[in-house]
Design goal:
alpha+beta; 18-stranded mixed β-sheet; two-stranded parallel ribbon; 19 helices; 20 strands; 40% helix; 20% strand; globular
Length: 526
């Protein structure tokens, strides 16, 4: 009898403990953000002519007063080197806005150089989406204590880590499901970079196993001011919180100098980089002058979505970036070429596809295969709609992880013999005259939920070059073409002699997971 009573008592204690745990987690999940500190409002530096970079750009502007200059960053290596060089050349300001900033070789190196720039008097504003910041609050909070560095977090979780953070996601799903997917970088108001790349090794040709085929644009001229307006809109929005307000006790005063000194001590460490970037203003300026000589000047327009205003509003209307894409689609007469890492069309988009095909516009799209996709769930959303896209007239190509083009796309010695290449670019070409490049995946999340930044360039020279790049990636040695036979069975081909009836280069388990996820109607949230 005593043993039975002891057992009952233990069960009761365990049950009470579980109940208390769930109550605590529920309270954490229901917690509210504090009122935003309005003193964090600030605005972009707008006198580029007072800086060396601005003075170097000025002669080009005199010949092209209304156009902007564009340099497409085709490889991760040059995308990294240009960012690194701009940090070293900066005199007044650096504004960086990113969805992901990894703490790997490239991400850590660039953070260290931002601190060096701040030490010499450059104002640094870093705006990061909160969804990928796990475990790094302390480091960013330490940097934020520097007098010339300010760091804000977009649409933050109330609970900063652990299971409480993800319970917060469940209880505040509508707000937290809207993310800042924008990727912009502006230095001295003179030069800017925008496009598809986050900050991380896999975007800069440094990762040993997986690197992305991606695309950014270096910009000079009037559009740089629009990039700054985009940054200010998000920096000053009610959804952006200073990290000092979210983590007031993340760094003790006595630890601050030690952390910053440790970062400074390793600021010139290039271990893991495949090429030495400029590490002083003179060599950085020389590097950027060579790059500026390759600018192509054309008419352009920057479009960015508004920061979230009403976090609880239903996200059922296409945002500005999606509306611009729709406008370009409707204006196309002959052909549309698309490359999109994640490609998911809803019913409305399928209707648009059917209509433009009916008037004779050819639509060819390149996306990831299951074998090259870094997210099986996202591929499942595409696979759920793949048959409908083919039925409505799209030509579909899926990137091979062993693409022969890797040797020209990924500038990392030896990588293509052992690693896999994936697609992360988000671009489109219309009638080989107009480009659409940015952070916008052609999927429902980009259309309705995330904020995005896109660049429209009306320039046949750049459009033809990008069209040829996309078409080369669609070639059999780089991609599998997806078609259907007379019975509706999907087929993958790489030329006339290679044909598959299931997704190539994948095992049963991965295909099973993709098929299982594709049964779920969750395309909007992928």
């Amino acid at each position: 009898m005593p043993d039975r009573m002891a057992t009952v008592s233990r069960h009761a204690v365990r049950a009470r403990s579980i109940c208390i745990l769930f109550v605590i987690l529920f309270i954490q999940g229901c917690a509210q953000l504090p009122p935003r500190n309005a003193s964090s409002l600030s605005y972009a530096f707008d006198r580029p002519e007072e800086t060396r970079l601005g003075r170097e750009v000025q002669p080009h502007l005199q010949n092209q007063p209304s156009d902007s200059g564009f340099y497409i960053q085709d490889t991760g290596r040059e995308a990294f080197l240009q960012r690194a060089a701009l940090i070293e050349a900066a005199e007044q300001s650096i504004d960086a806005q990113y969805y992901i900033w990894n703490s790997d070789v490239s991400g850590t190196y660039l953070v260290r150089r931002l601190l060096v720039a701040a030490d010499r008097g450059v104002r640094v504003r870093l705006l990061l989406d909160d969804v990928n910041l796990d475990g790094r609050d302390s480091m960013f909070a330490a940097l934020d204590r520097h007098p010339n560095i300010k760091i804000s977090i977009y649409n933050p979780f109330v609970t900063r880590s652990g299971i409480g953070k993800w319970l917060n996601f469940v209880t505040d799903f509508q707000r937290l499901n809207q993310r800042m997917h924008n990727k912009t970088f502006v230095v001295d108001g003179a030069l800017g970079i925008m496009g598809g790349r986050n900050i991380g090794d896999e975007y800069f040709d440094i990762h040993p196993q997986m690197n992305f085929r991606d695309r950014d644009v270096l910009i000079a001229g009037p559009i740089v001011a629009d990039l700054s307006a985009n940054f200010d809109a998000f920096w000053n929005s009610a959804s952006s919180y200073p990290i000092s307000q979210l983590e007031p006790d993340a760094v003790q005063e006595q630890d601050l100098n030690a952390q910053l000194d440790q970062i400074r001590a390793t600021a010139s460490d290039i271990t893991g980089l495949t090429r030495v970037p400029p590490q002083n203003s003179r060599s950085a300026l020389e590097y950027m002058l060579q790059t500026l000589s390759g600018l192509i000047w054309a008419e352009g327009k920057l479009v960015f979505d508004s920061p979230s205003v009403d976090a609880q509003a239903d996200a059922d209307s296409p945002q500005r970036s999606a509306q611009m894409l729709h406008q370009l689609v409707e204006q196309a007469d002959k052909n549309i070429l698309v490359e999109s890492a994640y490609l998911i069309l809803g019913d409305d988009q399928l209707d648009i596809l059917r209509q433009i095909r009916a008037r004779g516009v050819r639509v060819s799209a390149l996306t990831n295969s299951l074998a090259s996709n870094d997210l099986t769930t996202n591929h499942a959303g595409y696979a759920r709609r793949r048959g409908a896209m083919l039925a409505n007239g799209a030509e579909l190509y899926e990137l091979r992880p062993d693409a022969a083009g890797c040797s020209s796309w990924i500038e990392m010695p030896g990588f293509c013999n052992n690693g896999a290449v994936g697609l992360h670019a988000k671009s489109a070409v219309f009638d080989r005259k107009t480009l659409y490049i940015g952070s916008f995946n052609i999927n429902l999340r980009s259309i309705y939920l995330n904020s995005e930044t896109v660049l429209v360039i009306h320039g046949p020279q750049l459009a033809e070059r990008l069209a040829q790049d996309i078409e080369a990636a669609m070639a059999p040695e780089n991609s599998w073409r997806v078609t259907r036979d007379a019975d509706g069975q999907l087929l993958w081909s790489a030329g006339e002699d290679q044909l598959w009836t299931h997704e190539p280069a994948t095992g049963f388990w991965r295909r099973f997971k993709s098929g299982l996820f594709s049964l779920l109607p969750m395309e909007k949230y992928l």
